[in-house]
Design goal:
The protein is built from ten helices and no strands. It is mainly α. Pfam families: 7tm_1 (PF00001).
């Protein structure tokens, strides 16, 4: 016969217990992560600065998407993918705005479903950005090896690729709702208390490996282009190669900014997943999140600085909006002026009639 002690039985029951009915605050207490009860100066600064950056991110990436849609010279697969990258950054702006409006003391008011949605939005935007950059790397590899400026990929295939990118993002955003720690409190993350630490390890390692793959692909492309430029002497080919190289530099800067902005956050998630409370990841959470948020602002700046055609299109769109605004203001002033003239005429007429009656 086997005898089981009371302590062992109690521990077994606790480990097999699922806390589906507990609220968000319960899981925060489990990992000793504090939720502010009152607003302080730091909360106001974080939310004010965060919302300001979010507004700029939304407007800047919306401008990129409009520019690619309006300018026919951008109607090629590589620019469609860059436009989708801007869409991912735009979505990231929405995700961070939602985060800013549900952080600090507001966290206590969240249901578990709202908390999962808050995290899922950020996960979707990150996955869409990573998958999109990987698609751009593959597209550039295929075109550069054949020394073409743009690939001959059909539009239907590009649309299908974009749909697959967002489908992957949505799937990865939904994974934490199933892969959580509600049935294993020892597995709870200190950064995201309802997330499983094993999921964070999987998530961080997957993204970091993808970064290394993309860096390796672009390194190979640059070596190939450099070797090709040494072996050619035709002026037309050199001009074409220079155009290819300029586009490659722009895309590489986008990739570099993405890796720099997201690596600290992913490393922090990895340490949290591996070490738990001993990682002290909460100390760096706000800084890593702000750096990651800034990445969505960096891409439009890179486009405007590196691509003359994109910069010209930006100016044309902004000038068109300004002219339209001035034109509408003039029309409004003319309408107001005409109304005031009619009122003066009507008033004088009534006054004359009144004087005649007197």
């Amino acid at each position: 016969m086997y005898f089981v002690s009371a302590d062992m039985a109690t521990e077994s029951i606790v480990e097999n217990t699922c806390y589906y009915n507990e609220n968000v605050t319960f899981f925060y207490k489990v990992v000793n992560k504090t939720i502010s009860t009152e607003w302080n100066t730091r909360d106001y600064v974080v939310i004010g600065l965060g919302l300001t950056v979010c507004v700029i991110v939304l407007l800047a990436n919306l401008l990129v998407m409009i520019a690619i849609f309006m300018n026919r010279r951008f109607h090629f697969p590589i620019y469609y993918l860059l436009g989708n990258m801007a869409a991912a950054d735009l979505f990231a702006g929405i995700a961070y705005t939602n985060l800013m409006l549900h952080t600090g003391p507001w966290t206590r008011t969240l249901t578990k479903e709202q908390w999962y949605i808050r995290g899922a939005l950020i996960d979707i935007s990150l996955t869409a950005s990573v998958a999109n950059l990987l698609a751009v790397a593959v597209e550039r590899h295929q075109t550069i090896i054949t020394m073409q400026l743009h690939s001959t990929m059909p539009k239907r295939r590009v649309v299908l690729l974009i749909v697959c990118i967002w489908a992957t993002g949505i799937i990865m955003g939904l994974v934490p709702t199933f892969w959580n720690c509600e049935c294993d409190l020892k597995d709870c993350s200190t950064l995201a208390p309802l997330y499983s630490r094993r999921f964070l390890i999987f998530w961080a390692v997957l993204n970091l490996l993808t970064f290394f793959v993309m860096v390796a692909v672009y390194t190979r492309i640059f070596i190939y282009v450099k070797n090709q430029s040494k072996n050619t002497s035709q002026q037309v080919t050199e001009i074409r190669q220079q155009t290819v190289v300029n586009l490659m530099k722009t895309i590489s800067m986008v990739l570099g900014a993405f890796v720099i902005c997201w690596t600290p956050g992913l490393v922090t998630l990895l340490l949290d997943g591996l070490l738990g409370k001993e990682s002290h990841a909460n100390r760096y959470e706000k800084y890593c999140l702000f750096i990651a948020e800034c990445n969505s602002l960096v891409n439009p700046i890179i486009y405007s600085l590196r691509d003359d055609e994109m910069r010209t299109t930006f100016k044309w769109i902004l000038c068109s909006l300004c002219r339209r605004g001035v034109h509408q203001q003039r029309q409004l002033s003319l309408v107001k002026r005409g109304t005031s003239l009619r009122e003066e005429t009507l008033g004088s007429g009534l006054k004359s009639e009144a004087e005649a009656l007197c």
